[in-house]
């Protein structure tokens, strides 16, 4: 069987190969950021905290924060061996030495329900990569696919619809990264805030590559329909 290697060297083939590589990068970055994200590891989709996270003092901080921590400003006096007593009232929340959180403070897992947006991006990018690779292999195996009307329709429909879904998934991932990782990136309660910052950058990079993949798919679909109209004229 003679392979249609000429398609690989054509503009359409090069666009498909570039789109495949870009899609693979976007899918890998998105999946890696999702799997290794400290937030995703500590929070469930229903907002339930799994393992407790650590604050800046080294003590564990549960995801559901419902209490207020108060500190005394006055020194502690010893009344009996092994017992301690404070002589002053506690300082109000918000004082200079207070690290208190208001009783109405929301859980740090409140944005967990938007994690499906990250999964959406991962699913769409991997699906497009697999289907795109299958289409490219079909083109290489036989040049008959280039002249098959049904296959042309499938090729156009996949890249056109894929472009739309890729744009949506890129926006979803960017929104999730901004709402989750960017917010807790500057939260001093967590010792892994720097890691959250890195995941934010990684997710935004994945969103950027996903958007680039969508642009390539748009170019491919426009080229397919343009070539068809040219042949009919």
TrEMBL record:
Return the Low complexity bias intervals. Answer: 57-79
Per its UniProt entry, which superkingdom is the organism in? Eukaryota
Q: Where is the composition biased (Polar residues)?
A: 80-101
- For this UniProt entry, which segments traverse the membrane? 12-35, 120-142, 154-178, 206-226
What are the alphabetically sorted keywords of the record? Membrane, Transmembrane, Transmembrane helix
UniProt region (Disordered), positions on chain = 46-105
Q: This protein is called what?
A: MARVEL domain-containing protein
